[in-house]
Design a protein that fits this description.
The structure holds 2 protein chains of 2 kinds.
Chain A lengths: L1 H28 L3 H7 L10 H8 L3 H32 E2 L4 H14 L6 H11 L5 H26 L2 H9 L4 H12 L1 H17 L2 H6 L8 H11 L4 H21 L1 H9 L5
Chain B lengths: L9 E2 L5 H31 L2 E4 L2 E5 L3 H6 L3 H32 L6 H13 L2 H12 L5 H8 L11 H29 L4 H8 L4 H29 L3 H6 L11 H11 L3 H31 L1
Antiparallel strand pairs in B: 2-3
Helix pairs in contact in B: 3-7, 3-9, 3-11, 4-7, 7-9, 9-12, 11-12
The chains are: A mainly alpha, B mainly alpha.
Chain lengths: ~270, ~300
């Protein structure tokens, strides 16, 4: 009986620690600035949606959201296609000088280096190409980061799929690329999904490169736009809270929707 | 990490397109990686040996930028703050995550809810996590102040005080990343073999003995991987600090990434900042490779 009580208490405690900050964010976003700073209420006494309306009518949050969705979609989609092909080549072929293993190791090494290390040169590169403050500049950058991740993750998924199935397809007249496309790729679908989900999450949330590479609502993503808003209005807590809710909502919703795949993506590599 | 057996592979044979296929499949991905990651890496190395004025290189200075780093009090301070932050956050996360994973190993009602809720902190945009905590810490609008006033106390000062701000940052990181530690360690615990534990129970071993003699030693590799992953990640922490404190008050929470960013974009010392970032990159790589070697040794023993 006592272990049961301990379990209930621990569960409640953990839930409270995780959810209280989120409750406070949502609750603050529904208050007026007057209520926040002068009355210090624990829940919104006069709930209002004004803060949200203002974000979209005055603060260009519609553009930020569009930019985020476009940039995330293209950089993840391109990286998945390129990454799947690269991963397949590394997983299945034996190249001269074991080149395929060296390439795999090289991509993994690139992944370990913190992105901040190449921030300046990437900024200079985009500057010289005239791609600052554009979708294309962000998409190119994020695609490159996602490719290193996709190759690394999908290689292990392809490795788990028996070669015999492809060989059977080739005996039946498929080309090798055809066998990859019609047999291996569909079998690796759960792995592809896990990879895509993880890439979407990381890309949608990325801030550092968005900070350096974008400057106007033309290309600013959600995290970038939110941070800008905060810089400008230091004590407009109500807008800040509403921006936080809007910034977090799409990705939290997405994550809860695809929970099962997500956990697999997050923990794989560590446990194997 | 890829020990074990080598999967069966195709040897290149045939002619023409078949022979070129692996190269054609690798080419698009490698092209973009070479263009957007590798070229900048090389360019960064080049920039780190130059002096810049107003964003354009004016002279070659060899390794002088690198040497100068080690007599730069602000760099040394940011390095120290980063090491303190990483060591403190990651060890707290490891202990809490492990405890929580052990706790959740047995099925009970409410566990699905717990696992679902624990996903939220690590998927929320880091910028928004920082907003969450600014709203908790703020001396006028914060949750802590509101709670303290509801209980009859006064306002609470967190972000204005150097020590409190640093602790506040560690608390943020622990809130955000303990769930990841938890998920990895739970997956590890669930993949342990059952037999030794049943044998121990037959022998009548207490739960502490089981943990010390069985669970912990068997979990060591997974624990090590989880800690290494988190450490590498924590070293590059930027977003949360940028929004929460911007490195302040003073230099109390100025992590190395923030200092590097300011050096490059606020003070326009491009070459010096490039040298700083190359140094961080080398430190993290050295850390990662020694960790991998350590793991191999654990695996072997």
């Amino acid at each position: 009986m006592s272990t049961r009580l301990a379990r209930i208490l621990t569960t409640i405690f953990v839930l409270a620690v995780v959810l209280l900050p989120i409750y406070w964010l949502v609750s603050t976003s529904l208050k007026s600035n007057r209520e926040i700073t002068q009355e210090g209420t624990l829940y919104p006494h006069v709930p209002t949606l004004d803060n949200y309306v203002r974000l979209f009518t005055e603060k260009q949050f519609g553009s930020y959201l569009t930019n985020s969705v476009v940039v995330t979609f293209f950089s993840v989609a391109i990286a998945l296609v390129f990454g799947a092909m690269g991963a397949y080549a590394i997983a299945r072929f034996r190249l001269p000088f074991a080149a395929e293993r060296k390439i795999g190791l090289f991509l993994l090494t690139l992944r370990i280096i913190p992105p901040v290390v190449i921030l300046i040169p990437v900024y200079l590169l985009m500057l010289s190409l005239g791609l600052l403050d554009s979708w294309l500049g962000l998409i190119a950058t994020y695609t490159a980061f996602n490719v290193t991740f996709c190759v690394w993750m999908m290689e292990s998924f392809f490795r788990e799929i028996p070669v015999d199935l492809e060989e059977a397809a080739m005996v039946d007249g498929d080309s090798r690329f055809g066998a990859f496309r019609r047999i291996t790729l569909p079998l690796a679908a759960p792995g592809l999904a896990a990879t895509a989900i993880f890439a979407v999450l990381v890309t949608f949330n990325e801030f550092l490169f968005a900070l350096a590479l974008t400057a106007t609502p033309r290309a600013m993503t959600m995290p970038r736009g939110t941070a800008t808003l905060i810089g400008r209005i230091d004590t407009d807590w109500a807008s800040m809270a509403a921006a936080g809710v809007i910034g977090a909502l799409p990705i939290v919703f997405f994550a809860l929707l695809v929970q099962r795949h997500l956990v697999r993506g997050l923990t794989m590599g560590a446990v194997k | 990490m890829q020990t074990g057996m080598q999967a069966r592979k195709y040897r290149l044979q045939g002619a023409g397109l078949d022979l070129a296929l692996p190269y054609l499949m690798l080419a698009p991905g490698l092209t973009i990686v070479l263009g957007v990651l590798v070229y900048p890496l090389w360019d960064g190395l080049r920039a780190s040996t130059r002096a810049y004025r107003y964003g354009s290189p004016v002279s070659h200075v060899g390794f002088r930028n690198y040497v100068q780093l080690w007599s730069d009090a602000q760099f040394l301070n940011s390095l120290w703050v980063t090491v303190k932050f990483v060591a403190l956050s990651v060890s707290i996360e490891a202990v809490l995550g492990f405890a929580l994973a052990l706790f959740c190993l047995h099925e009970f009602r409410g566990i699905r809810l717990l696992r679902t809720v624990l996903i939220i902190p690590m998927v929320i945009t880091p910028v928004v996590v920082a907003i969450l905590f600014r709203l908790i810490y703020a001396s006028d609008a914060g949750m802590l102040t509101a709670l303290s006033e509801a209980m009859g106390g006064g306002g609470v000062q967190i972000l204005g005080n150097p020590l409190n701000a640093f602790i506040g940052l560690v608390v943020l990181d622990v809130w955000e990343w303990t769930p990841l530690m938890f998920l990895i360690l739970l997956a590890g615990l669930q993949s342990l073999p059952h037999e030794p534990f049943e044998a121990a129970r037959v022998d009548g071993a207490g739960s502490w003995r089981v943990f010390a003699d069985l669970t912990f030693p068997m979990m060591r590799p997974v624990l090590a991987v989880a800690i290494v992953l988190r450490t590498i990640d924590a070293f590059g922490t930027f977003d949360q600090v940028f929004v929460l404190t911007r490195g302040g008050p003073g230099e109390a929470t100025r992590l190395i990434s923030i200092y590097g960013y300011d050096t490059a974009f606020k003070f326009q010392q491009t070459g010096y900042a490039a040298a700083l970032f190359v140094t961080i990159g080398l430190v993290v790589l050295a850390l990662a490779f020694s960790a991998i070697r350590l793991l191999r040794r654990i695996d072997a023993s």
